């Protein structure tokens, strides 16, 4: 279950080789990846399934809901049955199922959002470009780069706060909150650090050195279509001169 994190594609070819070698199915967590494309088209075409989130925090949203992208009609029929109690008619149930249907109201919100998605993505792109320009050259701050997407969705703007920055990541985070700016330490803490998981041998920090390191450095800056450039300036000036 690989994740296209922050909308940046996984190493889809490497993951497919592993799946082919071990006869595995691939279900992509594409919650962040609405609208993202590589040179061949949508990255949602990879794997056996790709799952999108339409939560209110996402680039395209229906307030609550999501979608499953599947490769064939047979799979779609199975998914449709699963999300609707296993019903195939008024009096016929063919399999166990869940209540996973999107409401008409949520669908209507999504249809309205689709009318404005291109302009929303264009606004996000301008904000992304402004951040990159204004944060360039600040010691100890680096912007996350793409990983093969030809069309991005600019869903998030994560930066890494390294050891040679003026402050620790958490000190910068708290300073920004004091100034009325609300970044997110996304994803922090790691799932493996929660009480219900940290007792597992697989959750030991020695097994997750890269994830642990990144979780202590990452900070996602505000980004949304109506974010004013004057606010971007304030955010970047604070990061450049926090003291």
Describe what you observe in this structure.
This protein is of the alpha+beta class. It is built from seven helices and eight strands, in the order H-E-E-E-E-E-H-H-H-E-E-H-H-E-H. It has helices at residues 12-22, 73-83, 104-114, 117-135, 169-178, 209-215, 229-240, and strands at residues 27-29, 37-38, 41-42, 49-53, 66-69, 141-143, 157-161, 218-221. Strand 2 (37-38) and strand 3 form a beta hairpin. The longest helix is centred in the middle third of the chain and has 19 residues, at 117-135. The chain is globular, with a radius of gyration of 20 Å. The mean pLDDT is 95.
CATH topology of the largest domain: Aspartate Aminotransferase, domain 1
Based on secondary structure, the structural category is alpha+beta
Named CATH architecture of the largest domain: Alpha-Beta Complex
The number of domains: 2
Instruction: Calculate the mean pLDDT score and round it.
Output: 95
Q: What is the spatial order of strands in the main beta sheet? A: 1-4-5
The N- and C-terminal alpha carbons lie at a distance of: 42 Å
Query: If you compute it from the alpha carbons, what radius of gyration comes out, rounded to the nearest whole angstrom?
Result: 20 Å
* H-E string: HEEEEEHHHEEHHEH
Q: Based on the structure, what is the oligomeric state of the protein chains?
A: single chain
For the record, the CATH class of the largest domain is Alpha Beta
- The name of the CATH superfamily of the largest domain reads Aspartate Aminotransferase, domain 1
């Amino acid at each position: 279950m690989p994740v296209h994190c922050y909308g940046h594609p996984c190493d889809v070819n490497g993951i497919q080789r592993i799946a082919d070698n071990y006869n595995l199915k691939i279900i992509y967590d594409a919650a962040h990846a609405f609208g993202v494309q590589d040179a061949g088209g949508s990255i949602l075409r990879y794997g056996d399934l790709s799952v999108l989130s339409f939560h209110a925090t996402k680039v395209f949203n229906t307030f609550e809901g999501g979608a499953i992208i599947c490769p064939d009609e047979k799979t779609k029929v199975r998914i449709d049955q699963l999300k609707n109690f296993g019903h195939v008619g008024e009096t016929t149930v063919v399999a166990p199922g869940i209540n996973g249907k999107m409401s008409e109201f949520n669908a209507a919100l999504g249809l309205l959002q689709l009318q404005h998605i291109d302009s929303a993505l264009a606004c996000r792109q301008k904000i992304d470009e402004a951040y990159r320009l204004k944060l360039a050259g600040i010691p100890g701050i680096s912007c996350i780069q793409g990983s093969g997407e030809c069309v991005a969705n600019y869903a998030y703007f994560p930066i890494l706060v390294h050891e040679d920055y003026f402050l620790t990541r958490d000190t910068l985070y708290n300073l920004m909150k004091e100034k009325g700016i609300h970044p997110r330490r996304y994803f922090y803490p790691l799932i493996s650090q929660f009480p219900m998981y940290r007792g597992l041998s697989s959750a030991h920090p020695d097994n997750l050195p890269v994830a642990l390191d990144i979780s202590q450095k990452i900070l996602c800056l505000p980004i949304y279509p109506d974010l004013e450039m004057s606010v971007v300036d304030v955010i970047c000036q604070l990061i450049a001169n926090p003291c």
